[in-house]
Design a protein that fits this description.
Blueprint lengths: L12 E4 L7 H13 L2 E7 L2 E6 L6 E6 L9 H9 L3 E6 L3 E6 L11 H6 L2 H31 L4 H7 L3 H32 L11 H27 L7 E4 L15 H5 L6 E10 L5 E10 L5 E10 L6 H15 L6 E2 L7 E6 L5 E7 L2 E8 L8 H8 L3
Antiparallel strand pairs: 1-3, 2-3, 4-6, 5-6, 7-8, 8-9, 9-10, 10-14, 11-12, 12-13, 13-14
Helix pairs in contact: 4-6, 6-7
Length: 395
């Protein structure tokens, strides 16, 4: 192999290692199983071990903990272990030097478990700092969310308009995963040190398959995170909710969109209507949201329009909060004049108002679904509660 070639990059096969970085016996057993299958380790990159194909020759692997921050073992140690029949393979970054031996008669690198346990002092301190950093990040994220929702009292409607990026939520879940893995590492490290300090050698072979499954779950979560980041970067509008997809001016809304249709509301001919705006968005708290602006140019020369905002919330417990936010916004928009609450029949909530210029506004809710409408036309919306029930039952 040429000097500038990377053995990891040119490896024939890669596989995720067991999840716990401090279960030394499990990682060694995994490497030895791969050797019996004809794969020899050439290096590590992240959670993956990289292997080259070789003869099916059993061998031993041993992980020696780093005593300080270094990329390779000291020359003296390499010569000493080499004279004992052990070959230096690679270094797991910040954790272990990996050694391999194909001679079953060669002596073990560690013969005194107590002394072996003392070699984990550096890794134990490093683990403590890593766990402390993750805890601080989670506390900071929790504090930020608490400030937004309970101290600053961010309105739900504002959150839906501006968006709380979904990738941020997935990132928080990843931090929780890191915390779970950190707890597993603490447990594993404590067991390891307790075993070695009592003079008991590490038990090999050690089961590792459940840790492999855990590693696969972590990798799957990371894959979901990056896919969501990609989708969010492609479809998210600047400052908007996590996902958004706009129709072009003149195009109709999505087939599943919920909106007030002028043809259904007051009989406007379909060939007279058009759409200035048709937008679909998604949010952690509202899986489906539609903004639809329909207008009509009638032969008589008059115009009608219906600007519909529809929210399908994650749970109906959020409905009163969104209703309150919309009512406060509408009241503020019209110089403090509140909307009138009406009997909406089957609707859970029904508010209406009109302005001197003839525009009417409606807020209607049913279960998880909330509709906010700005309308200009001849129909008295106070008589259309049954129509709003029909729309909201689609959600």
């Amino acid at each position: 192999m040429k000097r500038n070639e990377d053995p990891v990059k040119n490896a024939d096969y890669k596989e995720a290692r067991p999840a716990s970085t401090y279960d030394v016996a499990a990682i060694e057993t995994w490497l030895e199983d791969r050797a019996r299958e004809g794969y020899r380790l050439v290096g590590f990159r992240g959670i993956y071990g990289h292997f080259d194909r070789s003869d099916h020759q059993p061998c031993r692997y041993r992980l020696k903990p780093l005593l300080k921050k270094e990329k390779a073992p000291d020359t003296e140690w390499a010569e000493l272990y080499g004279s004992m029949g052990w070959e230096y393979v690679t270094t797991m970054k910040g954790l272990y030097h990996v050694w391999r031996c194909g001679d079953p008669s060669a002596p073990e690198l560690d013969t005194d478990p107590v002394v072996q346990g003392e070699g984990f002092r550096y890794l134990r301190r490093r683990m403590a700092w890593n766990i402390a950093g993750v805890v601080l990040m989670i506390l900071a994220l929790t504090g930020l969310v608490t400030w937004n929702w309970f101290v600053a009292q961010m309105p739900l409607w504002t959150a839906l308009e501006r968006g709380l990026p979904l990738r941020g939520v997935i990132c928080a879940l990843l931090l929780v995963w890191v915390l779970v893995l950190g707890a597993l590492d603490i447990r594993t490290m404590c067991r390891l040190l307790r075993t070695l300090r009592t003079g008991i050698p590490l038990d090999r072979p050690r089961p590792y398959h459940w840790q492999k499954r855990l590693a696969q779950v972590v990798l799957g979560t990371l894959a979901v995170y990056w896919v969501l980041c990609l989708i969010s970067s492609l479809f998210a509008s600047s400052g908007g909710p996590a996902f958004t997809l706009d129709a072009k001016i003149g195009e109709g809304p999505r087939p599943d969109a919920v909106y007030v249709d002028l043809e259904e509301l007051d009989g406007v001919p379909g060939d007279c209507t058009g759409f200035y705006r048709s937008q679909f968005k998604m949010h952690e708290l509202a899986p489906r949201m539609y903004w639809t602006y329909q207008h009509a140019d009638l032969p008589s020369g008059t115009e009608e329009c219906a600007n519909t905002s529809y929210y399908h919330l994650l749970t109906d417990y959020l409905t009163p909060t969104l209703e309150r936010d919309l009512l406060e916004w509408q009241t503020h928009f019209e110089n403090g004049i509140p909307m009138e609450q009406l009997d909406g029949g089957e609707l859970d909530g029904f508010w209406w108002r009109t302005l001197p210029d003839g525009r009417q506004f409606v807020i209607a809710s049913l279960g998880k679904n909330v509709l906010h409408l700005e309308y200009q036309g001849p129909t008295d919306l106070r008589t259309k509660s049954a129509y709003f029930v029909k729309l909201l039952e689609q959600g």
